[in-house]
Every structure is written in structure tokens, then in C-alpha cells.
């Protein structure tokens, strides 16, 4: 029985965390940084290869992927917005010609390997162009993109993220429920809520 080719994964962590006031990638969650948590989640998903896209921070983030099968790519144009990070990651994957690419962020701490595997499985079973996470009455990342729509991701500009492409395909987009996706970590208040929910004291 033929097996599906591995799906590549982009982990985006290039932002400057301006609303947080400190590098959110290095905030602690269950004894690990948010980035280490996201990186381990990415590896546990079974996706390969995995590319971490850095920007505002690079050298500071590299220790967080130590020992993991993840390649770090520095996006020199990170300040122009998320589109440049998606482009940098896809260009780094170009030589592998992935059948599909999963894009995830470093600031969704409630994301699980199981949810990532569900996204991949649905895309491979249905051959949908995109399968996205559904939360807060919207569809967004994490999401899996078939290779045929990767050129459209490369066309994104400035602050445009993958959500723009997801929205443009409407009903053609498959979805997996991820109600916890409503919590990302952009502000001190959101991080405090995360710490409370996890029962942390740090």
C-alpha cells in the first residue's frame, strides 16, 4: 500500500514581539520556552523537513532548537511583515519539492502534535488545496497547503499572512476544529492568562 510523502513544515518565529515588550518566543510555558514547545510539537507531528524562520532574533533562538531536526533560516526582511517570512521559508524548502507544506506559528501554545497530524491526514485524504484550523469563526494557521498553491503564498506582500489565501479559496478549504487556537500570545495580558490556565508560577 503506497504511503503519502512527508509534509514539510514551516515554523514562523520572526517577529519582534512589540506588543509583548520582550521576546515572546523565549517566554516560559511548562518549563520550556514557547519556541522550544512549538519546535517539539512540530517534530512530534511527523512532518519533515522542518524549517524555523527567524528574524528580529536569530542567535538568541538557535539554542531553542538544539538537538532537534530543524533547520533555521534567517529572514533578513522580517520587518516588512509575515509575508517575507513565509517566502523565506518556502524558498528554503524549494529544493525538496514538498507535496504540501504545513505552516504554524510559535505563539499558539495550545497546539498539539495530534492537531497537526489531523490537518495533514485530512489534506492527504481529501486532496484539498488547503486544510486550515477553525477557531473564533475563522480559518487560519496552522494550515496545510498543497504544493499547487505554494506560488500563491510566494506572492503575498507585507503584513499579509496565509489567512488571506485561505479566505480567498472559500468553501474549497478543508477545516479541522481547533477552538484553543483563539489563544495566541501577543500581549502581557494574554501570557498572564496562559500562565494562569497552566497553573504555572513563573
From TrEMBL:
Coiled coil: none annotated. It holds the Pfam family NTP_transf_3. Residues 10-169 form the MobA-like NTP transferase domain. CDD domains: GT_2_like_f. It comes from the Bacteria. This is Nucleotidyltransferase family protein. It comes from Hymenobacter negativus. The lineage of its organism: Bacteria, Pseudomonadati, Bacteroidota, Cytophagia, Cytophagales.
